């Protein structure tokens, strides 16, 4: 563990809503480390110059990138780890010896959230319907492939984006957004990676009638915790996993990369973030 003061921050546009400062600040204090974790708003056109300034003039050595910088962030990296390269997006930057390494911990966050909150669920060979085709969907699909999911079905409002993702990811089937209900029968896991259902956004409109009652339903939206999708799924008896665990678990390897301590996700932390 380094004895020097370590400065890290989440960079987004907007960034005010981010829970990351709360999470990393909690861990810095809990583990008695010397460091800080802030939030910096950088517009897309100032991302590169802004990061350089934060590193060279302000001594930052770690960043999380959030919407809309996860894909553009690849260009800032001198090195990109295998997972981030495969996903095509970075959510974590580690600065060492003047070089920037890019990582993506979102896949791990997605997988650990499901594995921790739905013990016994195994991805291997399963049929998964993923809604959305943005940066979060890429990370979810990367995780599903790592765990050997059998069949991945993708549906997105803008079909071209789903097709583009399928073109670079073998074995993905694309279904029309308007016909996504037709893909529900036989699904073992349904994941919403769109922003629908988030506070201030319209709900995700989907008729779950054809979904098997045993299918697990996961929403990566965590505000509100019980999205309309999760409420509807729970009301008909489906097991559900909320999105908060993905946020907490994606933060762990990033914190480890900067501070040298693998922090714990606890109920106390979860309650604090949800308050
Ligand atoms: P992230 O990096 O968090 O995935 P993103 O790349 O902006 O964010 O992706 C947002 C996702 O939510 C996309 O799949 C988007 O669909 P489009 O590709 O058609 O834009 C989806 N989304 C956002 N608003 C939506 C809406 N009103 N109806 C359907 N899908 C929506």
Encode the helix/strand succession as letters: EHEHEEHEEHEHEHEEEHEHH
Number of strands: 12
- Kindly report the spatial arrangement of strands forming the biggest sheet: 2-1-3-5-6-4
Q: What's the average pLDDT? A: 95
User: What's the overall geometry?
Assistant: globular
Distinct ligand kinds: 2'-monophosphoadenosine-5'-diphosphate
Task: Give a structural overview.
The chain is globular and about 55 Å long. The strands form 2 sheets. A 6-stranded mixed beta sheet has the order 2-1-3-5-6-4, sandwiched between helices. It is α/β, with parallel strands linked by helices. It has helices spanning 20-30, 47-56, 82-87, 106-117, 135-146, 159-168, 228-235, 244-259, 267-274; strands at 6-12, 35-41, 60-65, 79-80, 92-96, 99-103, 127-131, 151-155, 172-175, 189-192, 216-219, 240-241. The chain has 9 helices and 12 strands. It binds 2'-monophosphoadenosine-5'-diphosphate. 2'-monophosphoadenosine-5'-diphosphate is lined by residues 67, 70, 132-137, 156-158, 161, 193-196, 202.
Give me a quick take on this structure:
With 275 residues, the protein is α/β, with parallel strands linked by helices.
Task: Explain the layout of strands and helices.
Blueprint (H helix, E strand, L loop, with lengths): L5 E7 L7 H11 L4 E7 L5 H10 L3 E6 L13 E2 L1 H6 L4 E5 L2 E5 L2 H12 L9 E5 L3 H12 L4 E5 L3 H10 L3 E4 L13 E4 L23 E4 L8 H8 L4 E2 L2 H16 L7 H8 L1
Parallel strand pairs: 1-2, 1-3, 4-6, 7-8, 7-10, 8-9, 10-11, 11-12
Antiparallel strand pairs: 3-5, 5-6
The protein binds 2'-monophosphoadenosine-5'-diphosphate (ATR).
2'-monophosphoadenosine-5'-diphosphate binds next to helix 5.
């Amino acid at each position: 563990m380094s004895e020097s003061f370590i400065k890290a921050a989440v960079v987004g546009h907007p960034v005010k809503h981010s829970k990351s400062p709360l999470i990393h600040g909690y861990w810095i204090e809990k583990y008695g480390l010397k460091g800080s974790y802030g939030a910096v708003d950088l517009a897309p056109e100032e991302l590169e110059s802004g990061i350089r300034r934060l590193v060279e003039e302000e001594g930052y050595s770690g960043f999380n990138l959030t919407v809309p910088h996860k894909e553009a962030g690849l260009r800032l990296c001198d090195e990109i780890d295998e997972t981030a390269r495969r996903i095509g997006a970075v959510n974590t930057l580690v600065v060492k010896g003047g070089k920037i390494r890019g990582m993506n911990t979102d896949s791990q966050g997605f997988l650990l959230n499901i594995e921790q909150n739905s013990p016994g669920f195994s991805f291997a060979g399963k049929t998964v319907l993923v809604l959305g085709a943005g940066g979060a969907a890429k990370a979810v699909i990367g995780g599903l492939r790592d765990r050997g999911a059998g069949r991945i079905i993708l549906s997105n409002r803008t079909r071209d984006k789903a097709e583009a993702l399928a073109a670079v990811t073998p074995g993905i089937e694309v279904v029309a957004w308007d016909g996504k209900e037709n893909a529900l029968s036989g699904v073992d896991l349904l994941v919403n990676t769109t922003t629908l259902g988030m506070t201030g956004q319209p709900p995700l409109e989907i008729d779950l009638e054809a979904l098997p009652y045993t299918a697990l339903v996961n929403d990566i939206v965590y505000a509100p915790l019980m999205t309309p999708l999760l409420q509807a799924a729970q009301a008909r008896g489906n097991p559900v996993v909320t999105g908060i665990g993905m946020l907490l678990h994606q933060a762990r390897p990033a914190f480890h990369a900067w501070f040298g301590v693998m922090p714990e996700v606890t109920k106390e932390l979860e309650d604090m973030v949800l308050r």
